[in-house]
Amino acid sequence: MSMLPWQGYWNKRNNGGHRRQEERFLQKEAREKLFHLEHGRSLLDFGCGSADLLVYYTQNFSDVVGVDFSTSMLASAERRLEKFGVSDVTLIEADDRTMWEHLDGDTFDRITSAGVIQCLDQDRLENFIIQAQDRLSPEGSIVLFDGLDPRIYPLFHLGVINREARRGPGTAILAWKYSAMKAEMIRRTLRGLSEYTVGYAHHPQTIQEIAKRNGLSAEFVSSMYYEYRYHAILKGL
What we know:
Layout: H1 5-10, H2 23-37, E1 42-46, H3 54-57, E2 63-68, H4 71-83, E3 89-93, E4 108-114, H5 122-134, E5 136-148, H6 153-157, H7 171-190, H8 204-213, E6 216-222, E7 229-236
Parallel strand pairs: 1-2, 1-4, 2-3, 4-5
Antiparallel strand pairs: 5-7, 6-7
């Protein structure tokens, strides 16, 4: 099976590519996500990467499984879990389609991912949600963190709303960058790729429709630390 573009990107990396990688920032980001995950017995984190956030998730969950397709990321996750003295986490090497066969029928109070749905086209995203729904415990939820918002990401990409930039581009430069961005999006779409190099930007309405088709409710929350991302919280009706 050929490697997808996002798999090639992450295959050799050893950290999650957060906005900042210092521990204080990771702790704050994890605290935000734990607010939405709340507490429970069991948690499945798909795309756990190097366990940057997973080590903090274990504070609220006693039975934790982390899944990632990248051997380099999982190796980093093992080192990080050991560094934090966390020994009760199961790590599995798999992708969104093969992970389920490794779980032996286990169910989870929370199934989550962070910054992962941008790697899945709409069909794979819906399939992931359907498979996850079958593995939820009663009253469980699917929490998809940090989806790219197509209404906002272009403005970030163009430098208009990047909170870390000193100032946005001038009008002429902005017009040129916008034209170049749209042309690249068209070229990528014609080649069957995601519209942006960073992945697919799923409109919240798309996830709302997927949720409705599968008997789930959907709540959307803006990310605190990534102004162009949002969280989707899916629950049974």
